From TrEMBL:
Signal peptide residue numbers: 1-21
Residues where ATP binds: K635
Top-level lineage group: Eukaryota
Keyword set, alphabetical order: ATP-binding, Kinase, Leucine-rich repeat, Membrane, Nucleotide-binding, Repeat, Serine/threonine-protein kinase, Signal, Transferase, Transmembrane, Transmembrane helix
Catalytic reaction annotation: L-seryl-[protein] + ATP = O-phospho-L-seryl-[protein] + ADP + H(+); L-threonyl-[protein] + ATP = O-phospho-L-threonyl-[protein] + ADP + H(+)
PROSITE patterns: LRR, PROTEIN_KINASE_ATP, PROTEIN_KINASE_DOM, PROTEIN_KINASE_ST
Organism listed in the record: Triticum aestivum (Wheat)
GO molecular function terms listed in the Swiss-Prot or TrEMBL record: ATP binding; protein serine/threonine kinase activity
E.C. number: 2.7.11.1
Protein name: non-specific serine/threonine protein kinase
Length: 938
C-alpha cells in the first residue's frame, strides 16, 4: 500500500543532509538539537554518539539554555535546543529507515528559559509523518532529574524516510531539545501496526535500584524505564539471579527491570495504578483506546504450600485476569490488554491476592500506551518525490516543509492539490513565479502527472524548455515568461499548443527562439540558411550596380525556396494533407527530432543486418546499435514486395506526430533510393503475446499484477491516439503481438502502419480502401461496415484483455477454431470465473480484480460499438483495478495480536503466527498452450 517514494528521496536527502550517515551501527538516530561548535559527542550515560541536528532540518534557530540553566550536571542532550519562530510547520527529516519496520520515536523538551522571556510555550503539536503524535505541554514537569518532558511513540513507518514535524498551534514558539529513533524487532509490540501506533503514557520500573532510569545498554532498545517505589505502601524485592528468557517474548523487558519488584506491605493489600482518559492526547478526539502491559515475574523461591495467586481487575471488573499465578521462579511473564470502552473516563487497575493465595501479589513493571491511528496518507508518492526534488534543486524556502499537500491547511505555498476521496492527494498546480529560481527547468516537473498549471515566470531560469512537459496529460497552462531560457520550443509542446490543449507563455525570454522554422533551419541547416540569407543581401548590393530586372528575378526565386521550407516544417493536420506531401518529397519526413539514416549507416548499425528480431508482411526487424551504444530496432521494408510503401510512409508520418510513453517511439528513418526503413526504440522484452504464452525471453508465467499494468499501459497508449491527437487516430491493428515490452516490462503500442486519422468533419468517417485486420481481433461492426472507429480499437483491446485474463490466444484452436470472446463470454455468463482465468497464475491474484478486468473485456467486445466503453473509460476502470491490486500488497506487520480477547496471559513459549505468504507465483511451468495462431502477415 505504502508507496516507496522515500527510497528515491533518500538520494535527495543526501543533498539536503550533506550526505551524513544518519544511523549508527545499531540503527539508532541520536540527535542533540541545536548543538553547535561540534558535530558530535559521546553521551556519558549511554555511551551513544549524539550528533548535531544541522543535517536533519533546514529551518529554525539553535539556542543554548539560559546561563542560569546551562548547568554542568544537566545531561548534555538538553543543554541546547532548536526553536522554530517562523512558519507553522517545521520538520526534521530522518532517512535511511526501512519502510514497513517498527520504530520507537522519542522527542525531548527542556525549556530552560532559552529565550530569556521566562515564558514556556503552552502547547504545540508533534507529528510523525502526516499522523498526529501528541500535543506537547511544556508546563508539565518531566520525571527525570532534568525535569525534561519526554514523549515517545512506537510506529510502523510507511516509507524509508520519515519527517517529524513540530506544528505551531498558537500556544507559543515550538522548540525541541532532542530527537531519538530506535528500530524495534517486528515481533515486539504486535499491537503497533501500519494503521495503529502506540503513544507512551507511562513506563514504570518498580523498586528500581538506586532510583535510576534504566535504558541503553541495559535495554537494547533504549526504552526509558522510570523508577517507581513507595516505601509506605510496598515492600521491594530484588534478585541478582538471571531471569529466564523465553521464546516469542512480545515485549522483551530488560533483565534489570525484571530483577526488581514490589509487593504490598499488607499481605491482604493490593497494588493499584490508574489513568484518566485524556482526549487531547489524540487531537481532541478520543483515540481507539489504551494498551496496558504488566510485567510479572516470581522473584521468590516458594515452599511447598505457598501459593501466589492474584486477580487483576480493571475498574472493579475482575474478569480481566482472574486467579493469575506467575509461571515459575525467575520466569519471564507478562499480561496485556487493550481497553477500548468509550464510556470510561478513567481506568484503575487493581492487583489483589485471591482468597486462596498465601502470598501477596507482585509486579515488576508496567507500560501504558494510548493507541493512536496512523492512517493518514500523504501526497501521492511520485508527486511528492518530484516536488521534493524541485525544492532541493532551487533551494525553495517558503513553507516547504513536511508533506506537500497534507494536511490541506498546511499544504505548501504555491501548490494546489486535488483531494479526491480515497486517493492520496496529487499536485495540480505549482506557482513559483518571482521565486528567484536559478539554473535550468527541473525535469522533475514532468513527473507531476496531475499537473494542470505551471507558473515559473519571472525567475532566472536558463537552458532549454524540456519537451517532457508535453507528456503531462492534464497540463493546460505553462507560464515561462520573464526568464533567460534559450533554444526553441520543443515539438511535443508545439503539437499540444497547435492542438489547442496547451497555452504556453514565453514572452520576455530574450534568447528563446520562438519561430519554429527559423529555429530548425538555424539548427539543422546553418550553412544553407547562410546562403538564403546572404542571397538577398547580395542582391541588394547588385541593385545598385546592375539592374532592377536581375533583382526582381532573384527575389522571386528566393521566395519560392522559402515557401517550400515552410511547408515541410509544419506538420500536416490530417491524412489527406500528409498523403499529398509525401509523394516522392524527401523533405516531408525531415522533421526536427527524427534522424535520417542512409542505407550504409543502417548496415553498420545492424552489423550487416545480422540479427533478426521479428518479421512481418512489411519486412524484417533487425537488432542494432547506434554510435552512442543505444540499442535500436530497425524495420526494413522488404523490396521484394510492393506492399507496404504506403503503410511505411503512413507510419513514419504518424510516428513523427505522436509522443507518448506507451507508444513505441521512432528514432529515425531511412529513405535511401529504394530502401526504406524505420528505426525504433528497442523493446528488450519482446511482444506481450510471447509473455502471455510464457515463451517470453525470460520464460516464466506473467504475474497478474504485471498483466494488469500492461493492460493499463496499452489502454493509455491507445487513449492518447484517440483523444490526445487531433484528429483522433485509429490504430486498426491492436493485438498482443503489436504490444511490445521494454526492459522494465512497460508496455508500448507498436506498428502504426494501418493507423488512420478519424475525420469527424467529413461525415464519411472513411479512409478505408482495404479492410485491415487480424483474425480474432477485428471489430465485427468494422468488418461489416468497413468503417473503422475508435471503438474498433476498443474491441481489439478487449480481446487483448481476455488474453491477459485467460492466458489463451485470440483464437482457440481446440477442438475447432473459436474466438476467445465467444469462449470467455459463454463461461463467464455461467459465472465460471475459475474456468476462464489463467490457471498458471496459481491464484496469485485477487479474484474480484480479475472479474472486473474480464467484465471490462466483455464490455469492450460488445457486438455493437455503441455499447462499448470509450478508451478513456477503459483506462479509468483499469486504473481502479490497478489500485485495488496495489491495495492488496502484502503488509509488513505479522498476524496481529489476540488483543481483543479479554485475557492475554503469557505463560510459556508460544509459537509465532506463520505470516501469510501472498507473494506472487513465479514458478516456471511448461506452457500447455498452442502457439499463437493469429497470423501476423498483412
Ligand atoms: C552553546 O554553547 C557552546 C559552548 O558550550 C557554544 O560553542 C555554542 O556556540 C553555544 N550556542 C549558542 C547558540 O550560543
Ligand atoms: C498544560 O498542563 C498544565 C498543567 O497540567 C495545564 O494546566 C494546562 O492547561 C496544559 N496546557 C494545555 C495547552 O493543555
Ligand atoms: C547503587 O548505588 C551504590 C552507591 O552509590 C553503588 O555502589 C551501586 O553500584 C549502585 N548500584 C547500581 C545498580 O547502580
Ligand atoms: C491489612 O489490610 C486489611 C484490609 O485492607 C486491614 O483490615 C488490616 O488492618 C491491614 N493490616 C495492617 C497490618 O495494616
Ligand atoms: C480455592 O481453593 C479451594 C480448595 O482448594 C478450591 O475449591 C477453589 O476453587 C479455590 N479458589 C480459587 C479461586 O482458586
Ligand atoms: C537574476 O540574476 C541577476 C544577477 O544574477 C539579478 O540581478 C536579478 O535580479 C535576477 N532576476 C530575478 C528575476 O531574480
Amino acid at each position: 500500500m505504502a508507496p516507496r517514494w522515500w527510497l528515491l528521496i533518500l538520494c535527495l536527502a543526501g543533498n539536503i543532509l550533506h550526505g551524513r550517515a544518519q544511523l549508527d551501527s545499531r540503527g539508532f538516530i541520536n540527535i542533540d538539537c541545536g548543538l553547535q561548535g561540534e558535530e558530535s559527542y559521546i553521551d556519558d550515560e549511554t555511551k551513544l554518539v549524539y550528533v548535531s541536528d544541522a543535517g536533519f532540518t533546514d529551518t529554525g534557530t539553535p539556542y543554548n539554555l539560559s546561563a542560569e540553566n546551562f548547568l554542568p550536571w544537566r545531561s548534555r542532550n538538553v543543554r541546547s535546543l532548536r526553536s522554530f519562530p517562523d512558519g507553522v510547520r517545521n520538520c526534521y527529516t530522518l532517512g535511511s529507515l526501512v519502510s514497513g519496520l517498527k520504530y520507537l520515536f522519542r522527542a525531548t523538551f527542556l525549556y530552560g528559559n532559552y529565550d530569556g522571556l521566562n515564558k514556556r510555550p503552552a502547547s504545540f503539536d508533534l507529528y510523525i509523518g502526516v499522523n498526529f503524535w501528541t500535543a506537547v505541554n511544556i508546563s508539565l514537569w518531566g520525571l527525570d532529574q532534568d525535569n525534561r518532558v519526554t514523549v515517545e511513540a512506537i510506529v510502523v513507518v510507511p516509507h524509508n524516510l520519515v519527517q517529524v514535524c513540530l506544528v505551531n498551534t498558537g500556544g507559543g514558539t515550538p522548540f525541541i531539545s532532542g530527537l531519538e529513533l530506535r528500530p524495534l524487532k517486528m515481533s515486539l509490540y504486535p499491537q503497533a501496526t501500519a494503521e495503529l501506533g502506540l503513544f507512551l503514557l507511562r513506563r514504570r520500573n518498580f523498586a528500581a535500584i538506586n532510583g535510576t532510569i534504566i535504558r541503553f545498554p541495559d535495554d537494547p532498545y533504549d526504552r526509558l524505564w522510570y523508577p517507581r517505589s513507595d516505601a509506605t505502601m510496598w515492600a521491594e524485592m530484588t534478585t541478582t539471579e538471571r531471569v529466564d528468557d523465553v521464546d516469542g517474548d512480545e515485549f522483551e523487558a530488560p533483565m534489570a527491570v525484571l530483577q526488581t519488584a514490589i509487593k504490598p506491605l499488607n499481605a491482604s493489600g493490593s497494588i493499584r495504578f490508574g489513568w484518566e482518559v485524556a482526549p487531547e492526547l489524540n487531537n481532541a478526539s478520543p483515540g481507539p483506546g489504551y494498551l496496558a502491559v504488566l510485567h510479572l515475574v516470581e522473584l521468590e523461591l516458594l515452599g511447598g504450600d505457598a501459593l501466589r495467586q492474584f486477580n487483576i481487575s480493571v475498574n472493579h471488573d475482575e474478569s480481566w485476569v482472574p486467579g493469575y499465578t506467575p509461571p515459575g521462579y525467575l520466569r519471564r511473564a507478562y499480561v496485556y490488554n487493550k481497553f477500548t470502552n468509550p464510556s470510561h473516563s478513567s481506568y484503575i487497575v487493581t492487583i489483589k491476592a485471591t482468597a486462596n493465595s498465601t502470598l501477596p501479589p507482585i509486579i515488576s513493571a508496567y507500560e501504558l500506551f494510548s493507541i493512536i491511528t496512523t492512517t493518514n496518507i500523504g501526497t501521492e508518492s511520485q508527486d511528492a518525490t518530484a516536488v521534493m526534488a524541485i525544492k532541493a534543486k532551487y533551494g525553495v524556502q517558503k513553507n516547504w516543509m513536511g508533506d506537500p499537500c497534507f494536511p490541506k491547511t498546511m499544504a505548501w505555498d504555491g501548490l494546489n492539490c486535488s483531494y479526491a476521496a480515497a486517493n492520496p492527494p496529487g499536485i495540480t498546480s505549482i506557482n513559483l513565479s518571482f521565486s528567484g529560481l536559478n539554473s535550468d527547468i527541473s525535469s522533475s516537473f514532468a513527473h507531476l502527472k496531475a499537473l494542470q498549471y505551471l507558473d515559473l515566470s519571472n525567475n532566472n531560469l536558463t537552458g532549454s524548455i524540456p519537451d517532457a512537459l508535453s507528456q503531462l496529460p492534464s497540463l493546460t497552462v505553462i507560464d515561462l515568461s520573464g526568464n533567460q531560457l534559450s533554444g526553441s520550443i520543443p515539438s511535443g509542446l508545439l503539437k499540444r499548443i497547435q492542438d489547442g490543449f496547451l497555452v504556453l507563455r514565453h514572452g520576455n525570454n530574450p534568447n528563446l527562439c520562438t519561430d519554429r522554422n527559423s529555429c530548425q533551419l538555424a539548427a539543422k541547416r546553418k550553412s544553407k540558411l547562410a546562403i538564403y540569407v546572404s542571397v538577398p543581401i547580395l542582391v541588394i548590393v547588385l541593385i545598385v550596380s546592375v539592374s532592377l530586372l536581375v533583382l526582381f528575378f532573384l527575389r522571386r526565386r528566393n521566395q519560392q525556396q522559402g515557401s517550400m521550407k515552410n511547408r515541410t516544417a509544419v506538420k500536416p493536420q490530417n491524412e489527406e494533407a500528409m498523403s499529398t506531401s509525401y509523394g516522392g518529397d524527401d523533405d516531408s519526413l525531415r522533421l526536427v527530432e527524427n534522424r535520417r539514416f542512409t542505407y550504409k549507416e543502417l548496415e553498420r548499425i545492424t552489423n550487416g543486418f545480422d540479427r533478426v528480431l521479428g518479421e512481418g508482411g512489411f519486412g524484417r526487424v533487425y537488432d542494432g546499435f547506434l554510435e552512442d551504444g543505444t540499442q535500436v530496432a530497425v524495420k526494413l521494408r522488404s523490396h521484394s514486395s510492393n506492399q507496404g510503401v504506403k503503410e511505411f510512409l503512413a507510419e513514419a508520418q504518424i510516428l513523427t506526430r505522436i509522443h507518448h510513453k506507451n507508444l513505441v517511439s521512432m528514432i529515425g528513418y531511412c529513405k535511401d533510393r529504394e530502401y526504406m526503413a524505420l528505426v525504433y526504440e528497442y523493446m528488450a522484452q519482446g511482444t506481450l503475446r510471447e509473455h502471455i504464452a510464457a515463451s517470453g525471453r525470460n520464460g516464466g508465467c506473467l504475474p497478474w499484477r504485471q498483466r494488469l499494468k500492461n493492460a493499463l499501459e496499452s489502454a493509455q497508449g491507445l487513449e492518447y491516439l484517440h483523444t490526445g491527437c487531433n484528429p483522433p487516430l485509429i490504430h486498426r491493428d491492436v493485438k498482443a503481438t503489436n504490444i511490445l515490452l521494454n526492459a522494465r516490462l512497460e508496455a508500448k503500442i507498436a506498428d502504426f502502419g494501418l493507423t488512420k486519422a478519424f475525420d469527424y468533419h467529413n461525415n464519411t468517417h472513411l479512409f478505408t480502401n482495404t479492410l485491415a485486420f487480424t483474425p480474432g481481433y477485428v471489430d465485427p461492426e468494422y468488418q461489416a461496415t468497413m468503417q473503422p472507429t475508435t471503438k474498433s480499437d476498443v474491441y481489439s483491446l478487449g480481446v487483448v484483455l481476455l488474453e491477459l485474463v485467460t492466458g489463451k490466444p485470440a483464437i482457440l484452436s481446440d477442438p475447432e477454431p473459436t474466438s476467445i470472446v465467444q469462449w470467455a463470454r459463454q463461461r463467464l455468463a455461467r459465472g465460471n470465473m475459475e474456468g476462464v482465468v489463467d490457471a498458471r497464475m496459481q491464484g496469485g491474484y485477487d479474484i474480484n480484480g480479475v472479474w472486473k478486468v474480464a467484465e471490462i473485456a466483455l464490455k469492450c467486445t460488445a457486438q455493437g460499438s455503441a455499447q462499448r466503453p470509450t478508451m478513456a473509460d477503459v483506462v479509468a476502470q483499469l486504473q481502479e483495478c490497478v489500485e485495488l491490486e496495489e491495495g492488496r500488497a502484502p503488509s509488513f506487520h505479522t498476524g496481529g495480536s489476540s488483543g481483543d480477547d479479554n485475557y492475554n496471559a503469557y505463560t510459556s513459549a508460544q509459537s509465532t503466527d506463520v505470516s501469510n505468504n501472498t507473494a506472487f507465483e513465479t514458478e516456471l511451468r511448461i506452457p500447455t498452450l498452442a502457439a499463437d495462431p493469429g497470423p501476423t502477415a498483412r
